[in-house]
UniProtKB/TrEMBL annotation:
<dbReference type="InterPro" id="IPR011426">
    <property type="entry name" value="CamS"/>
</dbReference>
<dbReference type="Pfam" id="PF07537">
    <property type="entry name" value="CamS"/>
</dbReference>
<feature type="signal peptide">
    <location>
        <begin position="1"/>
        <end position="25"/>
    </location>
</feature>
<protein>
    <submittedName>
        <fullName>CamS family sex pheromone protein</fullName>
    </submittedName>
</protein>
<keyword id="KW-0732">Signal</keyword>
Amino acid sequence: MMYKKFFFACIGLLLFLTGCIPSLDQEEEEIIIVEETDDVDEQQFILTPTIDTPENFYRTVLLDGEYQRSPARGVVASAMTNRIDINQFEVGLMEIASAFYEQSEYYFQEGTYLSGDTINSWIRRYNPAESRYARGLNPSLGELEVEENEDGEEIEVGLAEDVDSLSVPELSELMRENPLVLSNVLEHNYVYGSAEEGVNLGGMVIGLSLRAVYYFQLYDDDGKMYQYEQPLELDEVEEKGKEIAQQVVNRIRTHHEDLAEVPITIALFQERPRGSIVPGSFIAMTHVEENETGIQEWEAINEEFYFFPSRAARQAYPNHSNAFEQFKDEMEQFMGRSIGIVGKGRFKNGAIDELTIEFNMQSHGKAEIIALTQFASGRIEEIFNLQVPISVYINSINGPESIVVKYPDHDPFIHVYK
């Protein structure tokens, strides 16, 4: 199954707001009134207008005119160590949703069911002996002790080993053997509505972010800190992520009766190591229909990012790497000096899907920026010859200077900041 593009929706919105796409058509916002009942005060839902851009993106639901933030807002930032992973995790999850929820029929809303406390309890280690760890979805720190209850059933009661008595080397080895795999859980909701039907939840999309490297630190009795990192086997991480996904579905169905008839989509996101210059990617997805609990099958997502210029990109995609080098050389010849130019390519199923190029300049004049922007816009199509979105961001020590966005079968969109 191929899922639709969403990654450049934010760019389209940015260009609209900055006024550089004057020909876009825009619908009026739609207002839905939910009348007052014994349980709910009268509410006004506003569906933000549709903007006709080359890339479709979800309209948003506003409650009484206000954007509704998730009660778990902030958990993503604190749980993941790489900023570019955070951005791709959130935006990519919206893209995955478009395989099941048409942008023309559904509206986006941040998650409302999973609170920050709930997500924090899930990303802890599992230890049934302590209440704050009893709902953890990450591996326990070693084997668990099992006892029989009054009904003769075996239940887990806590860790079999007293980890508090271990030395720093012993404890570090135990933690390496039982790494924290799950780093975050992200919920998105997709609703549909009309003046006649009101607003209803049509589907829930859950992202599970999985570590590539387990970073941890320990302190000895003297307060000295020891830092460790343990690279993880990605196949094992994916397998563990799928096990966690089934537990997540079970918990949602069990603890939220009103979600019994709501489909749940779950996607696994593989992070990159700390300090990586390209983001992680989604590696697998599954869809559980309404009134179902068991996950039947998973669909692999073949997605990867490459940085230009780099040896990895040159080895994997030499033609694209050569085109980037040519573009960079022509830009520097045009300016008569070296310019910091880097790129990031997104590839799906072995083919490029998006290309982003960033200029980082020092001193300049406004006339130079205008000329460079015009020259770049004319060269990106001829040099790369790609039927994918291409974005060029020209920045300097003073901040953003200009932007060029080229969509397939459209003339480039250009904006120069004043």
